[in-house]
Structure formats: structure tokens, C-alpha cells
Write a structure and sequence with these properties.
The protein is mainly alpha-helical. Helix content is 53%, strand content 9%. The chain has helices at 2-13, 17-27, 33-40, 44-56, 74-86, 100-109, 123-134, 145-153, 159-168, and strands at 31-32, 60-62, 69-72, 142-143, 172-174, 181-183. The longest helix has 13 residues, at 44-56. The chain is rod-shaped. The relative contact order is 0.08.
């Protein structure tokens, strides 16, 4: 995900005391590489390296073509924060998870809308996701295969695989010809 890489780059840029000091100094106003080097007591090449990392993260910008004077760029940090806040968080429906492990699994494999993002490979996690999917069916009610597919398509595009897994793991029962399905 692009935002993950941007976050990593952003926090790496701020994970160094020298870069934090540079950002703090630039918060007071524009400054040249030489002035920053003198203020920090560092060699200009070291300051240039740190400025490059801060610029790559979108935190500073060069004001001249030669890259001698820099300015703190808060717009980059604000834009990244805005994109992060725009991402919806998956909220596990009430009663869908029996314990913290199930809650964690459902947060990992559900979309914010409650659909199944991916089917887990690990059987233990797959069972959690399948129990979640089985909650789409009312106990004691019989469903046609078409109704089952319609309900499962809301959760995952591959309704046939999901239906087969629900039957294989004993969460749905079916008549031998597949004429009716019901929750166990």
C-alpha cells in the first residue's frame, strides 16, 4: 500500500535526533545548509544528507535551484495525515467475535463494510472467518442455492468457494442434491 510506504518514510525521517533538530530549526524560519551545519556543529555533507531524507519524506523543500536554502514543508505532513484519516477502519460487528483472537482475525480479514477481504490460509483463522460468514444465515431457516449465493456474494466475490467451505467445515448443511441449505 502506498500510504504504508509513505508512513515508513515519514517516521524514518523523524527517527533521528539530528533530523528532528533540523525540522525544529526550520520551524522557526527558512535556513541555509551552511547555517544549519554551523548551528548543529556538523559538517555540511552530513546536513545535506539529513535534508535529503527530510525532503524525500516531504517535510522540507529547497527554495532555490542549488538546494542551498530550505523551508519546513508542513503541507506534506498534513496531506499524509489526511490520507491516513480518510482510510476507514474495520469495525467488527457486535457479537461477531467470541474472543480477542477472533476480533483480531476479523479486523485483519474484513473490509470496513463488513465484506471478507481475503480467505485466510491458516485453518484456525479460516474457521473464524467462516463462522462470521455463517452468521448471515438464520438458524432453522432453509435457503435455496441461489439465496445462499446471493447472501455470500455480499461477503465475498467467490460465493461458490465460500459456500463449499461452509459446508465442508460443517457450518452449513445441505440436501444431497443441493436443493436446500441451512445453518447448523
Amino acid at each position: 500500500m502506498e500510504t504504508d510506504q509513505e508512513l515508513i518514510q515519514f517516521f524514518k525521517a523523524l527517527s533521528d535526533a539530528t533530523r528532528l533538530r533540523i525540522a525544529g530549526r526550520l520551524a522557526d524560519g527558512d535556513c541555509s545548509e551552511e547555517a544549519l551545519a554551523s548551528w548543529l556543529g556538523e559538517k555540511p555533507a552530513v546536513v545535506k544528507h539529513h535534508l535529503g531524507l527530510l525532503a524525500a519524506a516531504g517535510l522540507v523543500e529547497a527554495l532555490d535551484a542549488g538546494g542551498q536554502t530550505y523551508r519546513l514543508r508542513l503541507a506534506g505532513a498534513r496531506a499524509l495525515a489526511g490520507r491516513l484519516l480518510a482510510h476507514a477502519v474495520t469495525v467488527v460487528p457486535e457479537g461477531a467475535a467470541a474472543d480477542p483472537f477472533e476480533h483480531k482475525v476479523l479486523r485483519e480479514f474484513l473490509t470496513p463494510a463488513g465484506a471478507i477481504r481475503d480467505l485466510p490460509v491458516q485453518e484456525r483463522k479460516l474457521r473464524v472467518v467462516l463462522r462470521y460468514a455463517a452468521q448471515s444465515f438464520a438458524a432453522g431457516q432453509r435457503y435455496s442455492e441461489k439465496e445462499v449465493n446471493t447472501l455470500l456474494k455480499r461477503l465475498h466475490p467467490d460465493s461458490a468457494t465460500l459456500r463449499r467451505l461452509l459446508v465442508d467445515f460443517g457450518l452449513l448443511q445441505r440436501q444431497s442434491a443441493g436443493q436446500a441449505y441451512w445453518r447448523t
